[in-house]
Amino acid sequence: MKKILVESILHKGSRRIKLVFEYNKELISLVKNISGSVWSYSLRCWHLPYSDSSIEEISNIQHNHGITLIQFNKLLEDRKFRFFDRKLPEDKRRVVSSFVNLMPFTNLSLQINDDANANKDQKHASNMQNSWYSVIRSAHIISCAQP
What's the burial of 8, exposed, middle or buried (CB within 10 Å: 0-12/13-18/19+)? Predict the structure, then answer.
């Protein structure tokens, strides 16, 4: 039976999926057909982008060709907790984009000044700081609530 060891690795600063198996032309052909697959001379193995599509393609190889994937379930569990490479939903992306576009015009380090002679611009910036804090906090709460 053909076996492939599947691991999550950090290679040259990028999270990758490492595939280790004995030399087999059929396995090599299958792995080459996976989008983004690369042979690493330094690691002496194949590796793929750390993405849901790569994981799905590896799973398809397992089911369609009867190949045993060692530590594949560990990779699936690991993937549940890694969010750094996932794309934000459109609504959250708009919130972040609005915040980034506002940054050059706002000094978020301003403190609320209760002095009666406080500058109107300073009060406006403080109000904007408070409202953006609420937006970001609610976006964070929503993202934490979703699996």
Answer: middle
Cβ neighbors of 63 (< 8 A, separation 6 or more) are: none
pLDDT tens per residue, range 12-51: 888 899 999 999 999 999 999 999 999 999 999 999 998 8
Environment class of 87 (CB within 10 Å of its CB; exposed 0-12, middle 13-18, buried 19+)? exposed
Residue 7's identity, in one-letter code, is E
Q: How far is CA 141 from the centre of its chain?
A: 18
The reply to whether the predicted model has a pTM over 0.85 is no
Q: What is the pLDDT of residues 47-104, one digit of tens each?
A: 999 888 899 999 998 889 888 999 988 988 888 776 555 566 788 778 888 877 777 6
Alpha helices, DSSP H, located in the chain = 25-32, 52-65, 72-80, 90-102, 120-145
How far is 55 from 76, CA to CA, in rounded Å? 8
**Which residue from 74, 34, 36 is spatially nearest to 56, judged by alpha carbons?**
34
The domains of the chain are located at 3-80, 90-145
Closest CA to 40 of 25, 20, 24, 57: 20
